[in-house]
Amino acid sequence: MILSGKEILKNVESGDIIIEPFNKDNVNPNSYNLSLSNELLVYENEVLDMKVPNPAKKITIPEEGLLLEPNKLYLGRTNEFTKTEKFVPMLEGRSSTGRLGLFIHVTAGFGDIGFAGYWTLEIFCVQPIRIYPDTQICQIYYHDIHGDYDLYSSGKYQNNKGIQPSLMYKDFEK
């Protein structure tokens, strides 16, 4: 089952869900709005390769906004650090951003129980759009988990501090 907004708030207050910084005004009926940091990464190569690290450059989103180009992948991150060892976190774009043709985290919204860090956002637009730092751009929601489970322990993305480009190449090193 998905936690209600009141349950999210209750679990933040008890420490079973960590969202830092936390703003009670961002609690929705069954989710919590997360905001966009002021940095993006864009891959430098036209062709990406799963087996090698792909170079990326950092772009700062100024207060007056940044115009995104269609058909280009941008990686952003949330301003908020999240952690929970009791629930399965899930991330989705907000309907308001989707209705502008701005897609946030389309392919990788399923979080692992025990994940701790900032969420890297896969950002894609269908037409040019201006974005702004600190915009409430996506929402996190939580599922109960039943049965025995192990906490997320992968070293690839756990406890990250910034935007994480794909580390899929590490899967080929095994």
TrEMBL record:
Coiled-coil ranges from the UniProt annotation: none
UniProtKB keywords: Hydrolase, Nucleotide metabolism, Nucleotide-binding
Pfam family, one: DCD
Gene Ontology BP, a term: nucleobase-containing small molecule interconversion
UniProt-annotated catalytic positions: E122 (proton donor/acceptor)
Residues annotated as site: Important for bifunctional activity: G109, F110
Residue sites binding dCTP per the record: R94, S95, S96, T97, G98, R99, D112, T120, L121, E122, Q139, Y152, K156
MF terms (GO), sorted A to Z: dCTP deaminase (dUMP-forming) activity; dCTP deaminase activity; nucleotide binding
Enzyme Commission code(s) on record: 3.5.4.30
Role according to the record: Bifunctional enzyme that catalyzes both the deamination of dCTP to dUTP and the hydrolysis of dUTP to dUMP without releasing the toxic dUTP intermediate.
Quaternary state and interactors: Homotrimer.
NCBIfam families found in the cross-reference section: dCTP_deam
Family named by the database record: Belongs to the dCTP deaminase family.
Name this protein carries in UniProt: dCTP deaminase, dUMP-forming
Gene that encodes the chain: dcd
